[in-house]
Amino acid sequence: MQTSFSPAQLADPNTREAEGIIRRCVHCGFCTATCPTYLELGNELDSPRGRIYLIKDMLENDKPASAEVALHIDRCLSCLSCMTTCPSGVDYMHLVDQARVRIEETYRRPLSDRLVRHLLSVTLPYPGRFRAALGLATLARPFAPLLARMGQTGARLAAMLQLAGQGVRSGADREPRPAILGGRRGRVALLRGCAQSVLDPGSNAAAARLLNRLGVEVISPKGEGCCGAIVHHMGRDDQGLALARNNVDVWTREIDGSGLDAIIMTASGCGTAVKDYGHNFRLIPEYAQKAAAISALTLDITEYLLRLDLPRSDVGNGIVVAYHSACSMQHGQRITTGPKLLLEKAGFAVRDIPEGHICCGSAGTYNILQPEIATRLRDRKVRNIDKVAPDLIATGNIGCMTQIGGATTIPIVHTVELLDWAYGGPRPAALADLAERPQAAE
Ligand code: SF4
Ligand code: SF4
Fold first, then answer.
1. 150 and 70 in one domain?
2. Are residues 408 and 343 in the same domain?
3. pLDDT, tens digit, for every residue of 415-431?
């Protein structure tokens, strides 16, 4: 795509980056075929190519964001399916990140929109506040149907209450961890996360138990917090960077102290964000190197487990698992086969979900801010899951677990909960009602 930025504009490193990204786009439109919002809405401006044109026009002409730009960029899930499809290597992620920041800085949203976004940004990244908000929201849940009929803001509040109503999955995070068995094979930091640590502490507990049994010391350093992804995707760059900077400091202290072999993520949304810290801090000299080192050490739990070469297990016993690959897993981090290989080795019969590349509509705060499109995508996902008739669903991202879990009776668990079970841990609580199968014959 031709561009016409002035030399003065290109003196700004962010604009220079945006120009380089835009120039790679050859207008081929392949990305439209795999863009969830284009598939659902059929509008070119809700496709990656259309959004690139909107962003180009805004940046090239130094315009503040218009209502039209905000509408179509807000509808983007940042699922990054377009990046997997694009034959030209267009770095859409960093382009849309810039657009979101520009919108936040130059577009005055309607008051109700500002209030909802503010509420999300001051609660979700902070587990204590989020836990308190969930308690209040659960009390207010009976009003959700009424709110849903009260325009866009009502629908957003109703979506919040709906998600809150799904509640906390278990308190297993507080269980004492088993002692390290066998020789010590490593020392890792496990990010507890913000929403995940409240909504589903069982996933982190399962990861810690499994790693401990495999001889890996697991720590969660004092002071670590939200990775910043939630507010980063809302264009709140300063808040996102402040949260990320805190984690860079905390983990760097550990690396310089007793050392870390890896920084482990159990939510792929966080994994994509932390693996991008190096990029986010590239223009901040005192943090650039430290942040790049943190990104290089960061692994999804399944990436780390693959390195440990687990033995075969028969605990899975042919239970049919529909594996839902979160967008942040498959498109954001390009992790596709590893989780399935681990589940198969553990004895589960893994099924791919038709249209597996299409987002479930969770996407951070998307299911709250864009409830209508998110619900359409969620229902589309559940219809596709039903086609493989699984006994259960496994995924590696808390957002997807909450989103999909709200529309199906099929149990949904974190991949690491199944792996923990397969290698000596407890059966996941969500599978309590799953009928026992006769053990396969030897
Ligand atoms: S990130 Fe997802 S929703 Fe946004 S343009 Fe790309 S494919 Fe479409
Ligand atoms: S697939 Fe890539 S090059 Fe083609 S229109 Fe989409 S972003 Fe541009």
1. no
2. yes
3. 999 999 999 999 998 88
